[in-house]
Amino acid sequence: RHTRPGASGRRGAWTQALERLGRLQSAHLQPGAVAHGAAVGSCGSSSRWARALDVVAQLPRFSLEANVIVSNIAASACRRGERWKYAAALVAGMLDRGLRPNVISHSTVISACSHGKHWAFTLAILTGMLIVALELDTVSCGAATDCCEKAAQWERAWATWEEMQSDHLQPNEVVCSAVISACMRCSLWDRASRTLAASR
């Protein structure tokens, strides 16, 4: 069986990180936030979303809690695994613990939702970013418009594009392509042309 280049190295990294945690626990030592964070990071970079969530779930046993960075890493692992509900739950958990999710937190969940065409939830997250005074970014808007395009929601894709224009945020290729595709699908040639002209 052929193995993708670098796959064994990535697999070794996350297993070694979990083994280190296990050795500390077996020796009746309390692993700190750094050790847990490293394990979550190794699992996340290897797309082992379930393992990453297991490590996060263990934190309260050691009187620890996932900070924003660790939660973002775990959410990113869930995004790679196309588990948008888990990614969203991690961000919601931050709010429950009094933490402030950042732009990366929201962008990660939006990207996770785009895999499943959950456009309504995606737009709700964008609205939530504005409510908590987080600036919209190109990555978040790009994932949102892409999600709307996949779900044949051209009005929402167009509205997101216009929101970027009003915020003086330059739409990237992902945003413009999604809006143009959504408009062309509905034979809205004028809007597609306007988007194309604005992207040049």
TrEMBL record:
Coiled coil: none annotated. PPR repeats lie at residues 137-171. Keywords: Repeat. This is Pentacotripeptide-repeat region of PRORP domain-containing protein.
